[in-house]
Amino acid sequence: MDILHVQRAVTKEDLEKVFSIRKIVFVDEQGCPPELEWANEEESTHFLAISDHYPCGACRWRKTDKGYKLERFAVLKEFRGQGIGRALIATALDDLPSDAAYIYLNSQLDAMSLYGKFGFIAEGEQFEEAGIQHFRMVKRV
Q1: Class at the top of the CATH hierarchy for domain 4-100
Q2: What is the largest CA-CA distance in the chain?
Q3: CA gap 126, 123 in Å, rounded
Q4: H or E element: which one contains 99?
Q5: With contact defined as beta carbons under 8 Å apart, do 84 and 76 qualify?
Q6: What global pTM score does this model have?
Q7: From start to end of the chain, where are the E strands?
Q8: Which of 30, 57, 71, 127 would give a disulfide with 75, using CB separation of 3.0 to 4.6 Å?
Q9: pLDDT in tens, 107-140
């Protein structure tokens, strides 16, 4: 049984692992423009998923003028389907301030059911972001 751990990424080494995972998933696999991928890093709280001592997933949250936005959920291809995305979402939600009344994210279509398990509901029209179709999803607290 693999040991899965999700932690806040605060050291330079952990952040480099986070950015490496996101580059592989978003820039290399999905073709996202790198300049879009690296926006808003400084005001974000980052997380790193580690399975059996191997960095395998990442995400972040940040406060925006609308509320708290969860974003940049990435799991390396060889680790998908092992609950890492669920662990990242749960950890990021647990880490939000207790007064986080409006929590939202922009979900790629194939991830919507996963976010739905955490109480996120699609809102508004489908839209394109970085060449990929998304829906805004909001968690009512």
Answers
A1: alpha beta
A2: 42
A3: 9
A4: none
A5: no
A6: 0.94
A7: 4-8, 44-51, 54-63, 68-75, 102-108, 120-129, 132-140
A8: 57
A9: 999 999 999 999 999 999 999 988 899 999 999 7
